[in-house]
Design goal:
alpha+beta, elongated, 3 helices, Thiol Ester Dehydrase, Chain A, 26% helix, 35% strand, 4-stranded antiparallel β-sheet, 129 residues
Length: 129
């Protein structure tokens, strides 16, 4: 993804909270690549995903107009949660800008209480973790 002006601080360096948005988008695309859209899970199964914890290490600031690559690796899966190890790198030279561990919980869309991950999703990711 490209770094836009809105992603940066006054100095043209990516603002720290922007890395969370980049990682969120990458996780959403990862889920979509498995055939699951968050909107469909919410409407059809009353399920949603919420971030319950995030730990980020900022290595080197990315800058305006940089093209970034954001990785998604499943670090752990539970019955109602997933932990993702993610990295944000410069797409041109591979420089690591930020790494994070993001813990996501599956919840019922109506009550926001923990809910088991769909069995078919667990089956698809079983060999990943």
């Amino acid at each position: 993804m490209r770094v836009y002006y809105e992603d940066t601080d006054a100095g043209g360096v990516v603002y720290h909270a922007s890395y969370l948005r980049f990682m969120e988008r990458a996780r959403a695309e990862w889920l979509r690549s498995l055939g699951y859209e968050q909107r469909t899970l919410r409407a059809g199964e009353d399920l949603g995903f919420i971030v319950r914890a995030a730990s980020l290490d900022f290595i080197k600031g990315a800058r305006l107009d940089d093209l970034l690559e954001v990785s998604v690796a499943l670090a752990r899966r539970g019955g109602a949660s997933l932990d993702f190890a993610q990295e944000v790198r410069n797409g041109a030279n591979g420089i690591l800008h930020c790494r994070g561990l993001i813990k996501v919980a599956c919840v019922s869309g109506e009550h926001f209480r923990p809910s088991p991950l769909p069995k078919r999703l667990l089956a698809e990711i079983a060999d990943v973790c």
